[in-house]
Amino acid sequence: ASSPDEEWPEAEKAEKLARGAALKWASGVFYRPEKLEGLGHYRRRETQRNNSIQSRLKSTVQSYLEGVSAGLEQLRSAAQEVQGVCQDLGAARWALLDSADHFQGLQQMRKLMEEHVQLASVVQVLPQIFSVHEAFSHILQLLHGQHLLEAHVELMMVEQLRDDILSQLHLRGLSGAQATVLSYVSGLQDLNESLAKQLWDIVGSSLRLVREDPVLFVTAVRIIEREEKIDDTLLLEATFLPPGRPKGWRQKFYQVLQDTITGGRFHAPRLDAEGPGLAKHLAALQEDIVCELRVVKDLMVQCVPAHYNILSVCTATYHQALTSHLQEILQEDLDKQGLFLLLEWVLRVYHSPQMMAHPDLLPEVDVSALDPLMSSELVDQTERRYVMKVKASIFEWMQRTLEVEFKEWFREEEPETDHQGFFQSALPAIVMQMLNENIQVASLITDSLQQKIYNMALEELDGFLGRLREALVQCGKEHQQDRAVPKYYISHLLAVLNNSLALRNSVSSLHPDAACREVPGSLQAALDRMQKKATQLLLEELLLDLQPLCLQLPSRKWLSGSQLVGSMCEVIDKYAKDFSRVRKPLFTLLLAESELLVVNQYLRALLLRKMVCKSRQERGQLCHRLLQDATQLRELFCDLGLDRGQQSLEAIFALRELICLKDPDLLSLEVLGFITKYPDVSDEHISTLLDIRGDVSKEVRHVVLEMMAQHPQALPEGYRPIFSTILVPVPELPFCLRKGKCA
């Protein structure tokens, strides 16, 4: 056996530490000799303390040992009891194994007991179930006699009986008995359907019944409310929900009422969606809806509970049905009248006092909180469809007007005149009236539609002016082939000019905003092009009559003093009398253009068929003739009303000064002044003028042309070209041999 120190090394370590501590303490206490006297007393005290500790340790160990002994005894007793229980369990196991065959008989007995309980439960309620069929017959008689309240009371009693029986069977878990009861009372479903059918027929005729026989409608509402309360109670409290519940008859009431409202008129066969057909349909809708909402507001509201909100429901139903119905109508290919009627009805009539804002409906009926009948996108789309239809109509109408206008040209009559004697036609009035009426009609709908129609009208007017110009061109070509057709060609051209002025003055009045009456630039340009073309055709007529006279310029006969310019003045005066049939700004324009044409033709004849003066005397004659012709023409145009400042004849006077200059060496200065005043003059023009003088040397010519090259001229703004339209042939260069001088 091992020693205690080997088994408990911690005890040995502790003892050493204790001894060391005791020696340290003793050496410290008894270090002084005087302290040794108390050593015996200390030894006795420590001896007593050790004895006390040892006795307490013995007592503790004794108590521990007694507890361990008691525990061991209890463990021994428990082991014996466990052994007895194991023996009992084994015996029970063998007993259970011996009786397993008897359990199947017990299962069959349990099933028989359950069936017996179910049959007993059914037997208890047989008297009540047997009375059900008699109740069914009575309820059916009441329904046939339209005694709906009494029929519903008995029906509720039968349903309550059925529900109570089914609830009891459900709590007992007797599903087989439940099926038996349900099969016996299956006639309840037919009675419910029969009652519901009568109720929905009544609701479907509610708008008529509240006026003729409100009692029947109120009866239907009372029955619906009874069923709604039963549904609510069962959903909140019952643990068992009977078959057919919840019925939801109040929701069905709303559905039937909505179907009644929408079914009669909004799902009608395809209607005539154009013109009068659509107008009648919309008028009928307006009248019917207002009338029926009056009935709902004044009569039906009093027949139903307040929480039904029947007026709001009907209003929303009409509104939604109209929304869908209008979209269906828009699927049709409506003409412009149909589209206008639809837009007017939606945006104006619907919210007007003639319909939803009717005094009899306000303030209870309010559709402002509902979505619009047509969304802003659909309204914009419909407006664009309407604009396209109107555009096609205007185009057709304008084309017909244009055809009629030019048919008038070939009549043997002058165009009509106004009270001042100016030529005119009905074309501006017809066109402007057509456009203005469409713009004003559009203003009855929305400002956006009016603006769309206005923009379209300007586009169509622009296109019309272009077609009118093309027609003028075509008519001018035909007239050139036979100037006798049309007979009053010039008069009709003058009427066109007056018409263009009338259109220009009237276009600004088309704008919807009175404060903004500017004519768009593109339309101004179209009017200018048409006016320019008519003016050009008139000047071509004048030119055709002047050309035979201009062909005689220049000539020796003319130089010697013929009446050639006098004849030209007679032609000009004749045309001026015709031009006086246009209004003053156009008359002045025609005079100015005619004067420029005469000057151009005069200069053209002088420069192209140049006559070289052979002597100073001939130059004098030429200058005299130029002075007389220019003076005569200037006096003519002044007499006709064209101011000198508006005339171009000064170019002839200036050209005369170049020819009359006596000293050729001064030509460069004179030419410089000439090209400064007429910057469209070219070198060829000046060379031709120098040739006409007949006395200009090559050196002087070279100086003049070099001076022109050093002083190029730019055309100032607003300058009316005179010489640029006169193309003078470039003189041929002389042929030179190599290392030789030119001839």
From TrEMBL:
The keyword Glycosyltransferase does not apply. GO terms for cellular component: exocyst; transport vesicle. GO terms for molecular function: SNARE binding. It holds the Pfam family Sec6. GO terms for biological process: exocyst localization; exocytosis. InterPro entries: EXOC3/Sec6, EXOC3/Sec6_C. Belongs to the SEC6 family. Interacts with EXOC2, EXOC4 and EXOC5; may be part of the exocyst. This is Exocyst complex component 3-like protein. It comes from Nesospiza acunhae. The gene is Exoc3l1.
